[in-house]
Design brief:
The structure is a single chain. The chain has three domains: 183 residues, Rossmann fold; 171 residues, 3-Layer(aba) Sandwich (Rossmann fold); 65 residues, no CATH class. It contains 17 helices and 22 strands. The longest helix has 16 residues. The two termini are 48 Å apart.
């Protein structure tokens, strides 16, 4: 199964590394090598051990056993500074720039060039930033503050920072999760240029189309263990999925056929100046209706206004025939509506609170007796929903921030499902989670629809839209431009409508 490394020693090698946290073995005896001039994908389900590998390479964790080798020589990183000094740079999904410093100052942070008498040479700082951006083929003003930069530009600044420190190994941990396709293409152009210059790149992503586009080899992990390392040309996506999850997926999109019931959600003439206008649609019990469209088309803004998170200038929202008070999420919840937001960390969870407290937060009053919240009732409620969603955790009392991204998404779902909603709105339900967890989330959505819940889904992934929706509403420039029944919804018809070609109308 496993193809041997190409001729020549790896630039960086992970050899038999093991790392445990208490009784849990996060990584057990994993080995693979990163070669100069190569992009190497590291894939696996959430909780497979990928993040622990990244943190060992970054100097955040030390292996309990095994060895890291750089240029064939064993190395030990006592801190992130040691890893950076050795030429290893990590680009995270959420960059960590200093927002009030300039782009150029962020690039040379900790290594400011000096004039005589120890004064900082600001002209040299700007020149260094301009040189690096020219090398990367991008245009970013070195003098502008980092605050306000897009995620894509922040990642480019992080790469420039790594090059400024002479990094030879670039670890990219889910760098594309929040990027548009155009931004992804620019990032890949930069990554290919670095690879041509001899850098070794480790790329972590749940998007197989990106892996096959950028990488030459792939290492697959499951349950903290190494499964295989192959050239991309020698393994299919189906084989990678099977090795990741350890089983054949019955279906990534297990959509049940359900006869829709009465109309539950009605939206008429919804508008918000400069954002969306004339939005009207309905959703019946047992139906899954998906919003599709390009980034910036107004999909998320519409569902947030429907739920009452954002204001609206006009329009009516009804649940089971009852008109809802505008701009009141409390009224929406009381009517039986639930919203699982796109940004689960900022909008869906309180990261420092326990798993059980996050699950039961919307029902804390119902679970209280004489004004006191019952710990036993809270724990029983949380255990019921986390077990139904197959959530992986050590203890319900652990902070929710300790969970993997996919399991955090399940906690957000559990929180709202405990409310027994009539209408469930899910915004990007599977963004940033692995293929096995995606299948579980899809199966849950389908079973909820079968139980009579009206489901509204916003998704940027066309296969997800086509695989799960009974109807597809396509948005462009703040308007619904096409409504496609499941039988007529194809990638071409959706994209034609989203890009204003008119074929889908």
């Amino acid at each position: 199964m496993t193809r041997q490394d190409p001729a020549g020693a790896p630039l960086l090698e992970v050899r038999g590394v093991t790392k445990s946290f208490g009784a849990v073995a996060a990584v057990a005896g994993v080995s693979f090598g990163l070669h100069a001039g190569e992009a190497h994908a590291l894939v696996g389900e959430n909780g497979a051990g990928k993040s622990t590998i990244v943190k060992m390479l970054a100097g955040v964790h030390k292996p309990d056993d095994g060895t890291l080798l750089l240029d064939g020589e064993p190395v030990e990183f006592g801190s992130p500074a040691d890893a950076k000094a050795a030429g290893i740079a990590v680009i995270y999904q959420e960059p960590t720039l200093f927002p009030d410093l300039s782009v150029a100052e962020n690039i040379v942070m900790g290594r400011h060039p000096r004039k005589s008498l120890g004064r900082i040479d600001r002209a040299a700082i700007r020149a260094e930033a301009e040189r690096l951006f020219a090398r990367l083929g991008v245009r970013i003003d070195p003098a502008r503050p980092a605050r306000g930069l897009s995620i894509a530009d922040q990642q480019i600044v992080e790469i420039a920072k790594a090059l400024s420190a002479d990094a030879r190994v670039l670890v990219m941990d889910e760098p594309t999760a929040a990027l548009t396709r155009i931004e992804v293409e620019r990032l890949f152009t930069v990554a290919r240029a670095l690879r041509q210059e001899g850098a070794a790149i480790m790329f972590i992503s749940h998007r197989f189309e990106e892996i096959t586009e950028l990488c030459q080899r792939v290492t697959i992990m499951r349950d903290g263990k190494h499964v295989s390392t192959d050239a991309l040309e020698d393994v299919t996506v189906e084989e990678m999925v099977k090795r990741m999850v350890g089983r054949d997926l019955d279906a990534l999109f297990p959509k049940q056929d359900v006869e829709p019931g009465a109309v539950v959600l009605e939206v008429e003439g919804l508008a918000r100046e400069g954002v969306f206008r004339d939005i009207s649609f309905s959703v019946r019990a047992g139906e899954i209706v998906a919003f599709a469209g390009l980034v910036g088309s107004g999909r998320s803004e519409v569902v947030q206004a429907v739920f009452g998170v954002d204001e609206r200038d006009a329009g009516v929202v009804k649940v089971s025939g009852k008109k809802l008070k505008p701009h009141s999420s409390r009224a929406a919840m009381a009517a039986g509506m639930a919203l699982v937001p796109e940004d689960r960390r900022q909008q869906g969870l309180i990261m420092d609170l326990s798993i059980e407290r996050n699950v039961t937060l919307p029902r804390s009053r119902a679970l209280s007796k004489l004004g006191f919240l019952s710990g036993a009732s809270e724990r029983q409620e949380a255990r019921h929903w986390t077990e139904r969603l197959r959530t992986k955790y050590r203890r319900l009392g652990d902070p929710v921030g300790t969970l993997s991204g996919g399991n955090q998404q399940k906690v957000v779902l559990a929180k709202w499902l405990a409310m027994a909603p009539k209408v469930l709105i899910v915004d990007e339900p599977t963004r940033g989670i692995d293929v096995g967890t995606k299948a579980e989330v899809h199966r849950l959505m389908s079973s909820l629809a079968a139980e009579g819940v009206a489901v509204v889904m916003v998704s940027s992934e066309l296969p997800e839209v086509l695989g799960m929706a009974d109807r597809v509403l396509v948005m462009r420039e703040g308007r619904i431009v096409a409504e496609l029944p499941r039988a007529e919804a194809t990638e071409d018809s959706v994209m034609f409508a989203a890009m204003g070609q008119g074929a889908a109308a």
